[in-house]
Fold this protein.
Amino acid sequence: MTQLIAPPAATDAPAEPLGGPWPASARPGRGGDLLVGGVGLAEAAERFGTPLYVLDEGEVRARARAYRRALPHADVLYAAKAFLCSAMADWVADEGLGLDVCSAGELWLAVSAGFPAQRILLHGNAKSPEELRLARRLRVGRIVIDGPAEIARLAALVAADTPQKVLVRVVPGIAAGHHAAVQTGVGGQKFGFPIEGGDAADAIARVLDQPGLELAGLHCHLGSQITQVEPYLRAVDALVGLLAQIRDRHGVELPELDLGGGHGIKYRPGDEELDIAEFAVRVTDRLAVRCAETGLEVPRLVVEPGRAVAGPSAVAVYRVLSVKHTADGRSFVAVDGGMSDNPRPALYGSPYSIRLVGRRSEAGTARVDVVGRHCEAGDVLVRDAVLPADLRPGDLLAMPAAGAYQLSMASGYNLVGRPAVAAVRDGRARLLIRRETVEDFRLREVGR
Ligand SMILES: Cc1ncc(COP(=O)(O)O)c(C=O)c1O
């Protein structure tokens, strides 16, 4: 049986921003619709089909601008792994951000879209020789060295008269982030060179020995969905300590310090998020203090936010396909997407909020599990969601904070096909990425 947990909802709320995890432009529309970027989500779903990812261009731009404002003297690189398409590359380039890419695919897409290669930084714990060659051919600004084999591999590609700027990724031994799978600031995981034990110092010495490699600085990335500034302050301490050791041992002062990304966002109303202005002030101050203590010039700060730019900028819209109430009192609302377009709940147990759009309900609310359409019991998008008790097939559900690590991690499971992406701005919607069809899968087959 459906369990009623609240009195019937009132009629339309006033047309105020929804706040919380929603884009700043989100406000109630007519007939229970929800406007994002001035476009009704139900209207967009009618036009483009579902599942649909609605990307608010204004929100992406505003978030990019907020970083530039908070950190005017830093390099802000958008982490493409959160979500990349040509439009996204255009918007962040327009707003003055650089780009962090971690594969030849991301690199190639960005450069093909016209993103200036000099403003691109290439990551990756297992860059192939082809990726390194492509990065050199396209003249990417910086490459982050993540493993010992890469030092010689990259040096072999570089002529001494056109040196490659590199950073060395180090592991400061700081645990932060929402899930063990994304905690990269500690030992026992595959990324970077640990400071403790001397791996980082050895790698740095080897890089400095290569005439074709210009060591510009140190890099670290602590983890994801970090909502407090303190871990970043500890990272500054650790990395400035290492910069001072490098100066003492090699007589060089490195001009850049990259603290990676990991800035946390709200997925549900009431969630915490990293306060970017506070981050900027406290990290910049701490860097100045530690550098003064060690007699170092203050290096240029680099940050690589992905989620905090893309995440809150998109809303996923699903259509309900079935509603099932079981004898043991559970209710399952199955939608036309799921773990193939959003693997985060299945991978990390990530919580989300979700709401009905496109009609008003006078019914009370009920606790339901919003589940996907895939052949796996773990395909649950939102556990214990509070939704109208009269949900029925055909209804539309909208999930905020859907812009990061959903489509970029989407799979072809069950050959369902990845959703379409539409951009909204000033009351207009346009398709950026069409829906993937079974014909797309079939076209990749070249034998039987
Ligand atoms: C090296 C590096 N930089 C930046 C990011 C972006 O992190 P976020 O999207 O959490 O800001 C990641 C994410 O995994 C990363 O590995």
